[in-house]
Structures are given as structure tokens and as C-alpha cells.
Amino acid sequence: MPRVLLRAACLLVLMPLAGQAHDLTPFQEAGRSHVLHEDVSPTGTETINIETYVPQACADKRCPLVISLHGLLRNAASARDSWVEAADRHGLIIAAPHFDKERFPTRLYQQGGVQGEPDRAKWVYSVIERFYDQALKSSRVTDTGYVLFGHSAGAQFVHRMAILMPEARFSTAVTANAGYCTLPVGKEAAGGFSYPYSLDGTPATEASTKAALAKPTLIMLGDQDTDSGHPQLNKSRGAEAQGPNRFARGENFTRVAAAEAKRLGVASPWREIVVPGVGHEQGKMANAAAQALFGGR
Q1: CA distance linking residue 178 with residue 245, whole number of Å
Q2: Number of Cβ atoms within 10 Å of the Cβ of 11
Q3: Three-class DSSP category at 215
Q4: For residues 215 and 174, is the Cβ–Cβ distance under 8 A?
Q5: Which of 63, 109, 125, 151 has its CA 20 to 30 A from that of 72?
Q6: Of 38, 63, 39, 37, nearest in space to 50 by CA
Q7: Cross-strand pairs, 220
Q8: Confidence of residue 23 (pLDDT cuts 50, 70, 90)
């Protein structure tokens, strides 16, 4: 389908939501809502639905923003709702963008549209930064950065954005139960695999990798996420080289990142958190992330 017609078709899907959405200013009322974010970039303008939640405690004051990235099923409402309990408990505002499969296939969603594109403004990861600008204009979120959380396919989005765009304004990136990872090393150190398994084929430099490893990142793993036959588990050669299941691949990612930080002389704040008794479960991983980040407040 031609891109213009595809965009029009996607907008028709979103149109029933428009009457309920704040077209330009999100977070203006307590409870569940959404906003149609007009994302203007060098590639053109895309309308992206953002599912939102504002707890009553944040109805008339600024609160921290959590941006939650959905998984392979592209359910943004579920990505938002997995944070509602924590939002009420800790006073957090939640935003969950919907990257539909028609406009944002794997190459653009999980992998960001990075390959062959040196202009970061054209990466899908930059949508998050442009939405944050809009969020700041709402006068409802704090200006100290945002927490970036992703589960499963969303975790792939998050960790690649954290590695490849360290200048982004996230305060902490949380990658939970990723199916496989982009190791923060070159092709040779990654078993001969290029992007999306390593940084080979991306604009990453040693300086940008050092900057990425110096920003807070949580690698969260459910210790029961060990099903090697899971129907959504990536079984490509590059992914299998990282381990037989998500838990093993996450531990491998942690080891490689720690070794690279040591090689580069970075005192890295990256840390792994293993969540006991939890498998491939978005809600439980979100609650564990909220406890790790905000439980001490």
C-alpha cells in the first residue's frame, strides 16, 4: 500500500479516539485518557496515539513521567495499565505510545530505523524525545527527565535507544525481559553478528558507547522467563548465540555490558535486577521496576 494511503488508513483507525483526546496537551485530567501526538520529523508528520494515566494525586501538580513501551502485540493500553497501580502508589504520570505494526514494523519499532540512517532525528527513538517536549509544555510533568520502561519487544526498543541515543533525556532506562539484545560492542566481540545484535552498522562510536554506559540502566529479568520454545522468542542465529532463552540472553547482555564498561574505563551505573518467581509477565515486571526506582521515596 502506498505510504500516503497507509497513513490515511491508520488515521481513520485513530479518528474515533480524537473526540476524547487532548490533541495538543496531554495529562489535563485525572484517570485514563490519551492524546494524539502529531510527531513532526525530517521524514514527515505521523499521528501517534499515546495512552495516558494521571493519578488523582497528580491532578494539580507536577509529577515524574514514566514512558512505557508495549510489546510485540502492540497493546499500548496494556503497557499503560501495567503501571497504574504503581502510579497511584508513588505519584507517577504514565504515557504509553502506540507504534502500530503497519507503520512501524520491527525494523522501525524494535530496531528504531537506525541502519543506514545517520540522522538521529529520523530514528523512531526520537519520537520519544519529541513527545517529552510536548509533555513538558503540559505543565504536569517534572523537568528532571523521564523513566523509559519497556517489556519484551518494548525492552528491545528501550535498550537500543539507551545505547544509541545516550543524549536523550531519560533519567533511567529499564529493559525488562528482552527477547534478544544489541550488545554494546563491535561485530567481532559479538560473535560476528552486525546490528541488531551488535553496534556494527550503526553510527555508534566509542565516545557514544561510553556515554551510554555512564547513564543509569536497569536490566530486569524474570527468573522464570526461561521457555526456549516460547512462540514469540526470536530464534535467529544472532539471537540464539546470546543464549537459549530470555533470562540467559539478559544475563549475557549484563556480562558483555559490564566487560565493555571496564574496557572503556567507565564507572557504569548499569545494574541487573532478577525478579524471583516471575516469567514473561509485563505487569509484575513493571511493579518490580517501580519498587526499584521509587520504593525508597
Answers
A1: 10
A2: 13
A3: coil
A4: no
A5: 63
A6: 37
A7: 176, 273
A8: low
